[in-house]
Specification:
Elements: E1 3-5, H1 10-16, E2 24-25, H2 40-58, E3 63-73, E4 76-78, H3 84-94, E5 98-109, E6 114-126, H4 131-141, E7 160-165, H5 176-185
Helix pairs in contact: 3-4
Length: 191
Amino acid sequence: MRIILASTSIYRKQLLQRLFNDFECLAPAVDETPFAQESVSTMVDRLALAKAGIIADQHPEAVVIGSDQSLLADGKILGKAGNADAAAAQLQLLSGREVVFETAVALVSRNRDISLQRRVPTLVRFRHLNHTEIQRYIERESPFDCAGSFKAEALGISLFEWIKADDPTALIGLPLIATAELLRSAGCQIP
């Protein structure tokens, strides 16, 4: 069975390597701009499915996995910061707050007529972060390609008071428990 991860994220690739050694990664051309009045949950569901769907259209014989992650803080949808100033602003906004990260995963196979999806929320409580801590963290990790501007699998874990989740990998960007469930539903043998 040909498996494709519809992502160029090194974090998602590393996570999927826990389940498979043999898969491809392809970049989906998806506009990730939120729709007007779209909730975070709806947006991550839509984008995960769109990413998997675009690659599945190009490779109908494959089983394609797409994922998306975001959160809402102070009425703003936070995605990838992209640069140091935006990362600092995101972390300042998140400082001392409890927020829900929404991570969606979709599995699409055109030849098998499969379209499956799950969303996994992760509740996170950030510690109160001062300016110096934020700057030090950004200098050490450059978390510009992560929703919320932190890497929970690395030094970013030090920014939290606690994490509550049904799937600890969801916060990193690909909920492996849900992904394994979807893959088994598509006929993949895991383990």
